[in-house]
Amino acid sequence: xxxxxxxxxxxxxxxxxxxxxxxxxxxxxxxxxxxxxxxxxxxxxxxxxxxxxxxxxxxxxxxxxxxxxxxxxxxxxxxxxxxxxxxxxxxxxxxxxxxxxxxxxxxxxxxxxxxxxxxxxxxxxxxxxxxxxxxxxxxxxxxxxxxxxxxxxxxxxxxxxxxxxxxxxxxxxxxxxxxxxxxxxxxxxxxxxxxxxxxxxxxxxxxxxxxxxxxxxxxxxxxxxxxxxxxxxxxxxxxxxxxxxxxxxx
Length: 250
Known about the structure:
CATH topology of the largest domain: Rossmann fold
CATH class of the largest domain: Alpha Beta
CATH superfamily of the largest domain: NADH:ubiquinone oxidoreductase-like, 20kDa subunit
């Protein structure tokens, strides 16, 4: 009998929303688990790495604490394939907003006593370990995870179609384009795959899936500057960590 691949799911500092997106799949997720051996899942149990080797390790969240860095390093050492799970691990996520502010001032908004609180710059995990693949989103799309994870357990590195969220708006039934109404939206530069859930709800796309490859956002940034202030544009780009990818056009 063919041995089931061992997978592990780890949370660094995070809200664990991407893991909840998996469990929200219900039976579909548990059907996937029948194909693998779930050797570690931090949402179910908080224990140290129990296996000598994982076929795939999924990492959610940001490395901030000493324990985070230890988990990330050991997961990389033990995993054949390491996957960044979600926006925080892949792009820095919402916590990266701190990088654009005075981090000493910011931490005092949250904590009364800060002497023993780690307050590093927020960086995506590929600054510290080799990442073999990234699954975008905040949170991730559960259905997309199943498709990509099934390819990974079969030994393939999947491909995510490189197209903008704007291509999904008509399919999602979005009737009014925010940009046509001179309202900001990052759909033209953001990687599709979310089914345009925000524009469909008449909320701008904030770029939680990151920008898609081989794009020159120069003309789009010029357009945004015609309808919104520099400050507002930068604030929108900072929310999910894509400002660094387009900053030379600002």
